[in-house]
Amino acid sequence: MKSYIKQQLKHYQEHNHEKARLLVSCPDQPGIVAAVSTFLFKNGANIIESNQYTTDPEGGRFFLRIEFEAGGIDEKIGQMRGAFAAVADHFEMTWSITLASELKRVAIFVSKELHCLNELLWEWQSGNLLAEIAVVISNHEDAREVVESLNIPFLYMKANKDIREEVEKQQLKWLEEYRVDVIVLARYMQILTPEFVSAHPHKIINIHHSFLPAFIGANPYKRAYERGVKLIGATSHYVTNELDEGPIIEQDIERVDHRDHVEDLKNIGRTIERSVLARAVKWHLEDRIIVHGNKTIVFS
Amino acid sequence: MKSYIKQQLKHYQEHNHEKARLLVSCPDQPGIVAAVSTFLFKNGANIIESNQYTTDPEGGRFFLRIEFEAGGIDEKIGQMRGAFAAVADHFEMTWSITLASELKRVAIFVSKELHCLNELLWEWQSGNLLAEIAVVISNHEDAREVVESLNIPFLYMKANKDIREEVEKQQLKWLEEYRVDVIVLARYMQILTPEFVSAHPHKIINIHHSFLPAFIGANPYKRAYERGVKLIGATSHYVTNELDEGPIIEQDIERVDHRDHVEDLKNIGRTIERSVLARAVKWHLEDRIIVHGNKTIVFS
Amino acid sequence: MKSYIKQQLKHYQEHNHEKARLLVSCPDQPGIVAAVSTFLFKNGANIIESNQYTTDPEGGRFFLRIEFEAGGIDEKIGQMRGAFAAVADHFEMTWSITLASELKRVAIFVSKELHCLNELLWEWQSGNLLAEIAVVISNHEDAREVVESLNIPFLYMKANKDIREEVEKQQLKWLEEYRVDVIVLARYMQILTPEFVSAHPHKIINIHHSFLPAFIGANPYKRAYERGVKLIGATSHYVTNELDEGPIIEQDIERVDHRDHVEDLKNIGRTIERSVLARAVKWHLEDRIIVHGNKTIVFS
Amino acid sequence: MKSYIKQQLKHYQEHNHEKARLLVSCPDQPGIVAAVSTFLFKNGANIIESNQYTTDPEGGRFFLRIEFEAGGIDEKIGQMRGAFAAVADHFEMTWSITLASELKRVAIFVSKELHCLNELLWEWQSGNLLAEIAVVISNHEDAREVVESLNIPFLYMKANKDIREEVEKQQLKWLEEYRVDVIVLARYMQILTPEFVSAHPHKIINIHHSFLPAFIGANPYKRAYERGVKLIGATSHYVTNELDEGPIIEQDIERVDHRDHVEDLKNIGRTIERSVLARAVKWHLEDRIIVHGNKTIVFS
């Protein structure tokens, strides 16, 4: 990592070392917010941002994200987690408390098309993606130059469906070696095995080059052109073992018309892919997404 | 028709009685624009607006729309058409010349949900839809009050799939009686028979309550909710005998999120349907759409 | 009011008679959410929706909106307000608790252009504006027909700047007589006196036909045309005694280009005005807006 | 210039060496299109794209852009221009014929904020900006690394208002030396002298970080924040000697809300600036813009 980016991240960490995020998901019932906010107050925490959502006021599921500030939290986080367990048990919560200053370690998988990788690197250099980009993994050499120019490790290994298992075995080793928390498929054109996906539940973010579910599968721009649609879109979603069917994080579209040939649609699409993927990754890094069944709750 | 609307339309006709529109579609070759514009110049016409498009510069198909003004055109339109036939033959054109002052006669088919009908009536009263709304046909009584309050004939006949043929026979009679040029399905929930559709090629405009081809078929909002999409859309298209597969005229979307339940999606969707259908109908009335295969060229 | 609208509103009230909204604004300090949510829990309330915002984590101002459900709230609202006063005092809160079933009474002021009035009436008939439209007041007769057709009182009085005081005296009398809670200026082209405005702080909603502060004052579309802007907008804001300078509630824009003449801009603008005003009124009716200085916090 | 970009541009030139663009502006009268298209036909040209616009059908001004293909045009362009002069004289045209393969030479002026420069370089590397980036000129060293890594000359000279004349003298020398056709101010924070501007009429493209005319002048994001606007915009325009008043080429906006502090607005704004400037530059490079008084006609 280049030194100016390192300094920038360090600066962020120092200025946010008292910040943490609580994510909660549990059956809805009265008293949850009272219990949680009283807990936080007693533990010296000040709520900065709070979002909640109930699927259904009558017997639904309750979701909560609280961003708070508490002196010394970076040292007593373990203790706070221990104390919160009692509240969590009472309400049958699935929950997490994470430190804003504990940067997630990201691996970016890329192939030959670099626009999504470039956008992520650019947003990262601009201080908009607060993460450690631990490694870039590719089955082509195209990205090496830009990646290494930022002092990010670039790992190349040929990949295709015949050697998938062998490749993934190596990739899993790399992911462990680089202590990766989240995998971003930035137009990585290989299908992952069920084993690989299952090992990273809601940790793999993909960008699909269509407004799902409109053109699931291959060649969406070509099919969009043939169908004569007037809008082109992109979808970022978590990868599950149902191809292109994982929980949608973000989508966006752009207007096109009859004059746009397949190449134009691809070009316009690339711009949408860039911004949609960047937003999805940002929300994930800031713990703003809770997955519920096959949907996401995004507290953006 | 209420007298103030009648007056408004008359005013439009008087101020545009010298305006006409030429639509052309033919194999591309050099000299088409030169021939057409020279023809118009020699016939005393001044070009107001001109749009053209070629599918492919090498041996593609050429499309042209010219709006022009010519003194006395309302009287010599037949003569001009006759003269243009020679040019048209030479280039193997499919073509039409229509008078801007010759208002198309519209039939609106509606069922119980009135938001699209209301939007069309509202845009019509505002002078944005230049047409004669000849008749509203429905299988429910819900629209009668608003339609008759504008002095538009409202024709009711019960409809369902068991009596489809009988119903359509009556509807075809009505369409003839009211000399209808274009049929707008403003959330008319009945499927039309192949015979009915074939009798009106590119003359039936439908509004589909999804961003096609995303949720073809029934209950798109429910399915959009279940899929957790982040955008809700609507599509206006010409009706063909492939269900929801006809040439798309216009589409639009609106952003939604996890908090929007099916009812909210419907509500948001209704707003998009209103504007998408109104735009499609407007373009059709102004002869701005050429159908090419299963796509539209919209010179908007 | 037509009976079907009356029934629709009654239906809403019956299904939401246990719902209420708490709005709070106070200096930020730890423990506010804990205190409020514990209060609600102890009073048998279940939080449905909660939004908060702090202008600045260090010594800023804190804003909170909680929508909650509590059995029998419609009967014990007075008691609850009394009990909450203690919490409110401790934190120096400005606050309110309102019943969702207590519909606000709206007066719409209109002149000759009816598109905004029509949109409000339409949204109201569709069940999207939950309010009693108590009266429509105008200095022209144009709106009488549509207003009276819905059985809403229509009050006409000539108005111009020479008789402003006399007119406003009458209007104030009417507002009192019809127990009006909120005034919507739906393209009412008269300037209100400081006295009239001061008597209704943050209770008068205006629609301005430009993207403020771009074209403050008269003839914004003409000036937009002359400046050659590529976007046309509208702004809804609370009226204060600084002309066009009150707190902005909502804004939106639409793309235009060189082909759009002043009339086209007006037309496009009208569509934006309709939706922007309708959204602003809806948020006000649902107690989603808190005014802070010359800005709004909109918990939409 | 890096060799792969050079190759890419060469490839474009070879595949478009028969393409040219005719731009025309003249008083409207019948027969212009007939004369021009007949001229083109007789000179062996095939029209690929054609756009026209008349300010006013009665005695207005007429604008035309035709993109055409003609065998050997790159060699006989001088001859064609000579022949067209007769047509042009007859209709009192202001006109130009340019070769698509003759790439414009661009100078980018930049200061310390690099997001607009980066976007332009990125779009250029992607093949979306067909130009020779001849030189980057700056009063800071921040951009040197990225610019020189692409083998583009980077010229540094300190600048401030006290040494403006001296600086501009040097810059003008550089512009001549590098044979620059168009100057892009990519967040160059210095004001140019009237002499400098007058020497490049409609050749200097600026990006202003607001939706003009909303926040003319300094600190637009701070002022937008204080005004509480709900939309943030950017404007690209040609530079004239009226500060921020030159002909607008393109504008766009993004939605913001009360939670966005000045820093957030700046961040969001930067994204809009990037895309708005890139679009404006692209249209200029493709000869899609005609300036008429203080407005632009953009045949996009």
From TrEMBL, chains A, B, C, D:
Molecular function GO labels: formyltetrahydrofolate deformylase activity
Pathway it works in: Purine metabolism; IMP biosynthesis via de novo pathway; formate from 10-formyl-5,6,7,8-tetrahydrofolate: step 1/1
Domain ACT: 21-102
UniProt xrefs under Pfam families: ACT (PF01842), Formyl_trans_N (PF00551)
Keyword Hydrolase in record: yes
Coiled-coil segments on the chain, per record: none
UniProt-annotated catalytic positions: D244
Catalytic activity, EC: 3.5.1.10
First-level EC class: hydrolase
Job description of the protein: Catalyzes the hydrolysis of 10-formyltetrahydrofolate (formyl-FH4) to formate and tetrahydrofolate (FH4).
Protein name: Formyltetrahydrofolate deformylase
Catalytic activities: (6R)-10-formyltetrahydrofolate + H2O = (6S)-5,6,7,8-tetrahydrofolate + formate + H(+)
Family, as annotated: Belongs to the PurU family.
KW Hydrolase (keyword) present: yes
Keywords: Hydrolase, One-carbon metabolism, Purine biosynthesis
Annotated organism of origin: Bacillus changyiensis
Positions of transmembrane segments: none
Gene symbol of the encoding locus: purU
InterPro entries xref list: ACT-like_dom_sf (IPR045865), ACT_dom (IPR002912), Formyl-FH4-Hydrolase_C (IPR041729), Formyl_transf_N (IPR002376), Formyl_transf_N_sf (IPR036477), PurU (IPR004810), PurU_ACT (IPR044074)
